[in-house]
Amino acid sequence: xxxxxxxxxxxxxxxxxxxxxxxxxxxxxxxxxxxxxxxxxxxxxxxxxxxxxxxxxxxxxxxxxxxxxxxxxxxxxxxxxxxxxxxxxxxxxxxxxxxxxxxxxxxxxxxxxxxxxxxxxxxxxxxxxxxxxxxxxxxxxxxxxxxxxxxxxxxxxxxxxxxxxxxxxxxxxxxxxxxxxxxxxxxxxxxxxxxxxxxxxxxxxxxxxxxxxxxxxxxxxxxxxxxxxxxxxxxxxxxxxxxxxxxxxxxxxxxxxxxxxxxxxxxxxxxxxxxxxxxxxxxxxxxxxxxxxxx
Length: 295
Hints:
43% of the residues lie in helices and 19% in strands. It is α/β, with parallel strands linked by helices. The strands form 3 sheets. The chain has a 6-stranded mixed β-sheet with strand order 2-1-3-12-4-13, with helices on both faces. Strands 8-7-9-6-10 form a 5-stranded mixed β-sheet. The longest helix is centred in the first third of the chain and has 22 residues, at 3-24.
């Protein structure tokens, strides 16, 4: 066979292989600055103070600027992550599960264990949704709450709305709106506790670690509250990144958390946490099941 033809034939056969490889491997994203956001579980000034050590450590570890995209709601974080306007985020389990269902490449990689408190077990990487009331209300049982008012935090909050609607709703055998005279949203867990404290509502669904925070800060005392209901354990909020970030950048981000050095220790102190631990999508399977039943 003619040598020139052989060279042409080999190039022709190899060309589709090159084309397929190019199609299968799109360029990854290496953003600079890196954009970070977080679920607004408490007031923004408190969140920014808590997360500043993380921002400092990420900038040092990644060698680039990290900017904070301040969210208006839990759904804002989801939308910003899906649109590519946020690269890295701390999301509630439900928010992450919603985002993951719309973009399977979004990846959960770390959460934390807590030092423990009144309602949190030391070393645990889980928390609970609590239904809290004040003893001065004279409410001693769930039955006493029928026909009264309750506040949730945000529609996409795991412990502040999703789990209460699923698990508490199942326990009373009806939707919250038909059991309570009034069901509202505060926007965050600390606002829910503030509304409870000021007498605007009879009870509030809040995360157990946020109740511990309020006790630690003296905003509430253990002897003035009553816990009427507690959910099953919920895995702590995951840190997640966009799936199309370059693998080397993803690994540097993971190691910044999991190595636990530098300013990360300051973040852990702000969270009343012990250490960061690895998580993956399977760890949040239960939340996905709950969400699928609510659609």
